[in-house]
Protein 1
Amino acid sequence: MKRQLIYTLNLALVGLSSIVLLLALVSFLKTGEDAPLWDGPTKETKFAVSAFEQPALSFETLSETLLQLKFETPKLQLPDLSKVLTYLGSTGRPDAGHQKEAVFFALANNSGMAPVAPGEKLYLLYDRNEKPSRYVFSPDNEPTSLWLEVTPQEKSAKITLSLVGEENELITQPAKNREFVLSTREIHRTSRPSNWMIGKTRVDGTLLARQKAKWYGEDRFFERHGGDEYADIVHKQRIDFGEGEENYSLFVNQGDVIVWNGLTWEVKEPGLDTREKPLLYVKKIADRLITFDLWNEEGTSKMTLNLLKSQERFQKQQLQHDFKFIATKTRSQYVFEVGGQKMTLRPQDWLVKTDAGWEKIETAEEIDEYVDRKLQGPLFVFDGVSKLGDKQVLTATLFNPSRTEMESFELDVPTSSVTVLKIPRNRTHLVENTDTTETEYQTLNQ
């Protein structure tokens, strides 16, 4: 019942709304037909006149304008490099004093460093090809229009910057960019560059081992037989490098400088010959250890290297038993049994023990090979006859293979040699080819 009532009311409202809309439409159409149209004159629209508008004659009578453009050529000024330039101080290389106290600089966003000595110029340029554009050091320090000069101080440096203009005039402004002071920033020298090479060998803590370096100590051979030619290396420490035919020796004291010449190390006095080369500085020599400082060419990187002293067993008693005196042949010739074989020796004869046994060194080439350590092994030197108290004896000296030890000893004279060597007082029976005196024979037979 209620639902039917609501439906009836809705239909009534819809019908009423339709009647109202129809009456409004009829009224609008009737009003539009009766409205009159405008046929009067139209008014012309006028825009506002500018208060600054003047006739052309007014502008022609003016002598000059209120605002006038004036062109001036731009003036060059010194760049401010105090924020991009780093002062690294002097290198610690032992030969730095021979480089006019060169100091080093670095530039922001650049990995390289550049040296300059007081009184010299360090040239720079602005590289627009870099990304981003930046100041760089001129390659090989080729002259450019921009350069700096340095005056080192205790922990800083005064920088003087100069620039040449297009008409070769010297630019010195602004003054704050012309001269400024930079504090020293220490070079990090303890790490090695990844591309640090010496010859074909990459630098690390095993460099000396890979170069077959061996430290033996003092060379006693030169102490005994070096003479004036080798007097300057006596009592120095010998270090051998390489093996076989490539073997070579250096003789150093603490404080010496060793430089790499491209193929080998060599001892040099600090100076022009040592600049821009890898350098070993003999920092300390202890009983069992030598400490070196290794510097790169620029002096910007340093590494500490150590070398242990090589030890060698010297079986001198066993070697002495290889030599037995048999007889005197002449006043300067003596017959020995050497390693089971008879051999005639003269005073100052040298014998080296090789894989083939004891071999006499006779030619100049063989002597040079032993001196230069191309030929190595225990060395027997027959010293000859020496006086011991009231009698004369045969003496010899043994050197170990590394020549760092030597042992002098007397040669045993067997009693069997008495019957062979004794000369009768009537001198009717002589040993063939002898020039030995009767006194010497009797002394050897006592």
Protein 2
Amino acid sequence: MPVWDGATRLFHWLLVVAVAASYGSAWSGVAALHRASGYVILALLLFRLIWGIVGSDTARFAWFLTWPAAALRELAQFRARTPDTQVGHTAACGWMTMILLALLTAQVITGLAGAAVHALVSYVMLGAVALHLVAILAYAVVKRHNLVRPMITGRKRLPAAMQAPRMASPMLALAVALVAAAAAVLIAALR
């Protein structure tokens, strides 16, 4: 069953590359690459924020954001090995996604502002990325849920009775990407 559209998957993996380039260039002192990767991250964040409103079901914030109590209940029962019947993010994964997006937004804003807190935010972001990776590993080891394969293929083996999520048009994704890229270029030009 399709669970992740191509635009969401492409966003995810481009973000991985852009964040790695941002950290690598900061540590190696390549300012031009650091600035460029920051603008790419800005464009990707703008895309994701818009896509979280108009995109496919599983990409929409309204689809996966629940009350924090639901995420806490889910984490309290984490050790129980249950079949993977989740379409899109679980409650806890949804909140982790929002935390990562918020931290990336703070990182971009503090970077654009040249704020001293930019370095501090980058360390908090590294911790959140590490937690994200540990969670993926924990889902694989404890629950036997492979979260990586669906983010690569877009598909997941689920019970036939489950309804597939609505997938948004790739043309809509392209339009959103062009708007996000144009906004990032405009912001870069104004700096």
